[in-house]
What does this fold into?
Amino acid sequence: LDTSPRHCMNSFVKNGGVDILSKWLRKSADVRFACLMVLQKLPVTFADLQKADILATVKAIQNQDQEEGHRTNAAALIERWKGAGFLEPPSKRRRVEPSAAPAQAPQAAQAAQAQVPVTVV
It folds into this structure.
């Protein structure tokens, strides 16, 4: 990924790649390390993370996975997303004028807060 053209990574994200990584993180401990490393390199937005419902999955791996390497990489990913402002409570985020951003559907807001079951091995 370090040598992949940026437009390829953007295309991967745009075409559902984060959704696929989210599913793999939940279902297969064998590929969890690789998925976490790929997520470190991808140019994602908060909307991408919400759409894939991946925040809760990565947090669960950080807190519950038996593999130390998985927990460490999940923690690094959470820190990266926190640094980008993706994990701040809405009250601490910079205010966006209503005309500049579409309103979030109530279902999307609930989905972002829902806990995602993770099979931890």
The helical segments are 6-14, 17-27, 32-41, 46-52, 55-64, 68-83, 106-113.
